[in-house]
Amino acid sequence: MPPLTARVRAPERSSIRVMYDLAEAHDGDLVRLEVGEPDFDTPEHVVDAAMRAARDGDTHYTPNAGTVACRDAISTVLADRYDLDYGVDELCVTVGGMEALLLAVLATVGPGEELLAPGPTWPNYETQAALADGTFTEVELPAETGYDLDPDLVVDAMSDDTAAVVLTTPNNPTGRVYDPADCQRVVDAARDHDAFVVADEVYLSLCYDRDARAVAEYAGQPDHVLTVGSCSKAYAMTGWRLGWLAGDADVLERVVTVRESTTACPSSVAQAAAEAALTGPQEPFEEMYAAFEERRDLVHDRLAEIPGVTAPRPEGAFYAFLDPGVDDSLALAKHLLREHGVVLAPGSGFGDAGRGHLRLSFANSRARLREGLDRLEAGLSTF
Length: 383
Hints:
Layout: H1 6-9, H2 15-25, E1 31-32, H3 44-55, H4 68-82, E2 91-94, H5 96-108, E3 114-119, H6 124-131, E4 135-140, H7 151-157, E5 162-168, H8 180-192, E6 196-200, H9 215-218, E7 225-230, E8 243-246, H10 249-259, H11 268-279, H12 283-304, E9 319-322, H13 329-340, E10 342-343, E11 345-346, E12 358-361, H14 366-381
Parallel strand pairs: 1-10, 3-4, 3-5, 5-6, 6-7
Antiparallel strand pairs: 2-8, 7-8, 9-12, 11-12
């Protein structure tokens, strides 16, 4: 067989997916707290909109950037909720937030150039940098401050090779919501280095202790900031694969040209569903938000009762990032699954800053969370 390229040989399988596969193959009752998957079904009015679209024959190709109607719905929500002024020519509807991030990286990171992100960080950024033939640098944030964004560390790490910086807020895996002033410093420094900022804000609708503010909004919406959003998390639409990339019209024009050769366009039916989710009745999503906030409080309070465990208070998203005082988080995660029936994601899957930690998703019912936390405490005592 001819050799494969380095870009597909280099990425390693995430330990998060390792745990997912182990859980799928496991017989018996498991409390699954490893994946960021809302336990809610997509609300009925969203499903009905998709069914109407399919039955009415809306099953064909759409413009590469997505339908004007879907882009207009996204534009309206970004303006009404976050004071962002993106027109339809500054938006591309994508196959989930994942494609939006990949398109942003392909557009901004060239061969040998650097993609930089504060850590702990979502592992897909590193893989996407490799697919762009670039490099990836993790800037480790200190656990002592609860992984607050330290702009000095990020700015000091920038160089002439830095092509883009990813700011993930609310953060996966830590649940932290970054301070606007700290983000502003990073945005300003990126401009000085002629670099882009990719604002990964797929959890922006899930902020609990701070107002939900977009990086581009408080930075004055400069042309070197690209905004990524998604319907997956806050709208319980992970399987619909519907996200977006927003930014300068010239950048988006080139992005749309590239995606002609990737996914071509998003699903027409999923776009109809997204329109209904974004502009239709919001009560189901408000109920989900309230449930996530209650679960956040339950998890934070219960973790504080477990001896030897520390975790910053999650301010957004639906993750707690806990330090159980071990060195090998993958070994611990496997022990918890096999011996105690609770599944968490190893912190080692989120870069060097996550070593020895575990990520717990509280996108599950209160009853299952209580059971899972009891199993976690029992498992820690036997490791």
